[in-house]
Amino acid sequence: MSGADARTAGADFFISYTRYDRSWAEWIAWELERAGYRVTIQAWDFVPGNDWRGKMEEAFGATRTIAVLSRAYLTSFYGREEWQAAQQADPGGFERKLLPVRIEDCERPEPLRTWVSIDLFDLGVNEARRRLLAGVRGALEGRMRPDVAPNFPSPPWRARPTAFPGPGGPRSSASAAPVPGAGAADGADSAWFSSPASPPIVPVRDAAGQRSDSVRFSPIGSYLVGHRGWVSSVRFSPDGRTLASGGGDAVRLWEVSDPHQARRLGAPLHGHTRGVHQLAFSPNGALLASASEDHTVMLWNVHDPRNAHQAGTSSGHARGVWSVAFSPDGHTLASAGDDHTIRLWDVEKPHEPRPLGPPLTDHTDSVRSVAFSPDGRTLASAGDDRRVLLWDISDPRRPHCTAALFTNTIQVWSIAFSPDSRTLAGGAGGEDHTVLLWNIHSLEPEPPQSLAGHSGWVASVAFAPDGRTLATGSSDKTVRLWDLRQPHHPRPLGTPLVGHTERVMSVSFAPDGNTLASAGRDQDIRLWTRAPNP
After folding, report:
1. CATH of residue 112
2. 53 pairs with which residues across the strands?
3. Rounded to the nearest 10 degrees, what angle do helices 22-34 and 125-141 cross at?
4. Of 456, 319, 327, 427, whose CA–CA distance to 369 is shortest?
5. Are residues 137 and 205 in the same domain?
6. Is the pTM of this model over 0.85?
7. Contact 308, 334 (CB under 8 A)
8. Could you give the percent of the chain with pLDDT greater than 90?
9. CA–CA separation, 270 vs 233, rounded Å?
10. What is the pLDDT of residues 215-263, one digit of tens each?
């Protein structure tokens, strides 16, 4: 028996997948073999000269089957045969012969719905590797007891005082919950949003007739349809007339001068070979940057949105690119990704973007988000290494790290500066579901203020142009608004905006602050318009 045949016959794992998920299957197989396991995978082990059916019979003889779960896999005839064969060999799951590994958040049919899975979606490479190997080890051993003793629990973070960090703020507050009647005087401007197609918003009033914070929203907003996959990013152009959206299929442009009659502009922009994670408009609105899983950042000439076309490409990253942002003067582009680096690019010649010095390598895991401060002095970065770093970019060719902000060991997946550059907002990923606010002008680094409300991780944060409202989108399928008019006492504003049927991945305010866009895994883009105060 050849070495390859011996490996197949006595394999620890057979990887079951569809051709659409081959890159995931190969990554899983590589990591398992590197950890010392024996793996059978069709892409590597079904070679010329083999009988396909014979090899499949051998593959089913592996100790366990890893089913790489995605929407495509769950609709595949062969995929169903493979996972059902493993499940029928161990219907109670007592021997753990079937290991579902989800690479996207997809609904599972019975009996897979009750099978404990290893979830790898929306993770950086290091965390995904850790979860994969820990899950496999747990399946083999039948238990996932940690290798070291857990630390003695500290008091819950949310039980601590929630004073906004910085001089002049109160040292403690009784609760982060909204207080009826507290806040600005009656008649103060409030950012309440409704769907353009919704009935009028009716604010709830208390017994005394005073307006409260409870606002009724239509459950379904008007939405833009066109994407054939998840939508990970939406951004308004600086003049507010165009909305850009990007996701699993392409980049699209929309005419939104009148949000009630939004429509597509031109053909979809194709060029990336994998999904788009984030978009950014240049300050003058002539360029659109797109960050992709295919390791590249593309620049698009959108001066005439109806005839947009590719202007240039930067390809310095070694892995997928999560985030992209333009400097306020439009001369510099920042990008960050799974290779743990941040790169700065000179984009004065969009057809030929040039790197500005070596990459910034202070992060130790995937960098999920970068943002320039509106005053142009600071770049912020955040990611899976549970650090938020601030960089002095007075000279983009010689940036240097000036501070590492407290994160309470939370992964931060989205960051945004307030218009006055004094506050940085962050959306917590992973197991935490909070929104974090840092006063970056404080003389001494302090813990962030933590806003609780979402029941899922926070994928996107965006300030309104006046800085008085923050919008957040979450895996709990909702968009929430936060009143920041009193910086020391931010509070929820109204009820969550609902309508998305899967997790919300991006939120963005129009430049006039009167329209909010949201997008997510349900392939829809929803527009919300500001309702007049009653």
Report:
1. 3.40.50.10140
2. none
3. 60
4. 427
5. no
6. no
7. no
8. 47
9. 16
10. 333 333 457 888 988 999 999 999 999 999 999 889 999 999 988 888 8
Tell me the mean pLDDT in the region 183-199: 41
Contacts of 45 (CB under 8 A, 6+ apart): 4, 7, 8, 55, 59
Q: How far apart are CA 291 and CA 465, in angstroms?
A: 24
152 residue type, one letter: F
Q: Which domain holds residue 58?
A: 3-141
* Domain-located, residue 163: no
Predicted local confidence at residue 21, as pLDDT: 87
Domain match, 488 and 384 both = yes
Q: What gap in Å lies between CA 502 and CA 500, rounded to an integer?
A: 6
> Which pLDDT value is given to residue 52?
63
pLDDT tens digits, 278-318: 999 999 999 999 999 999 999 999 999 999 999 999 989 99
**What per-residue string of b and e applies to 27-45 under the rule 16 or more CB within 10 Å gives b?**
bbbebbbeeebbbbbbebb
- Domain shared by 228 and 110, yes or no: no
Dihedral over alpha carbons 427, 432, 437, 443 (to 10 degrees): -120
Q: Tell me, rounded to whole angstroms, the distance of Cα 99 from its chain centroid.
A: 26
Shared-domain flag, residues 90 and 24: yes
Question: What is the spatial distance between Cα 361 and Cα 359, in angstroms, rounded to a whole number?
Answer: 6
* DSSP class per residue in 321-368: EEEEEE-TTSSEEEEEETTS-EEEEE-SSTTS-EE-SSPB---SS-EE
Kindly state the tokens that stand for 356: 């500005």
Domain assignment present for residue 441? The answer is yes
Please give the Cα distance from 451 to 178 (Å, whole number).
11
**Choice among 42-56, 107-121, 124-138, 361-375 with the minimum mean pLDDT:** 42-56
Task: Count structural domains, the chain.
Answer: 2
Q: How far apart are CA 33 and CA 136, in angstroms?
A: 12
User: Which residue is it, tokens 């941040």?
Assistant: 342
Please state whether the peptide bond connecting residue 534 to the residue before it is cis, i.e. omega within 30 degrees of 0. Answer: no
Mark whether 422 and 498 lie in a shared domain.
yes
